[in-house]
Amino acid sequence: MTEERSTVDTESEGGPASPGPTAIGDPLASPQRQPNRRTRERRRHWPALLKRFPRLFRQPRGDDLWPGDRPLVPPESLTEYQTLEADIAVWNQQLEPRFRKLDHRAQTLQNQFWRQRVMLIAGGLLATSLATVQAAVGGGNVYLAAFQAVLTGLLAGLTVLIRSRRAQRGYLSARLRAEQIKSEFFMFLARAGDYAEGDCVTRLEQAVDNIEAGGLP
User: Fold this and answer.
1) How far is the C-alpha of 199 from the C-alpha of 207, rounded, in Å?
2) How far is the CA of 164 from the CAs of 111, 117, 155, 161, 172, in angstroms?
3) Residues 83-121: tens digit of each pLDDT
4) Which residue ranges make up each domain of the chain?
């Protein structure tokens, strides 16, 4: 009885109470979620080269649905925007395939640009390592020197090839046109600018045609 009174008195006076049952669904107390959170925290501190490491071989087709594609309006949320249903249908049926084509092209060229840079970095590291080994053995290794000369020549040719393909410029051009299509559609939704009056759908299609042709909307 004395021990029970002391426990009750301690709790009533604001002292430490005995730990009660943990609420179900509490993310701080769930032992299964903490490892996943630590994994996400570690990934945030990965070097940029590992976060966005390029695909080295197979790329998805440009007209397929890619894993990172997100709809402008999720299908389950279409009922919440009934006043914009007709306008959103214009995007889904006419504009989204054209936007995805440019968006996928931009991602493909961006991956190509990253892959080229990774090849140059790896080749430069290998050439430096060969030079270090040659210096460590005291020089005079003909096979090592020949391999280093061939590798240096290949890297020089790869550099010229990368500059001629201009993957970065192609990526920026495709990304700019894709975002212009999206911007024009938002202007169309707001009925702003050239879409304040008249046949807005026809005007939007003409603007998208001009964007795809490389001109101004």
Assistant:
1) 13
2) 17, 14, 14, 5, 16
3) 888 888 898 888 988 999 899 899 888 888 888 888 888
4) 83-217
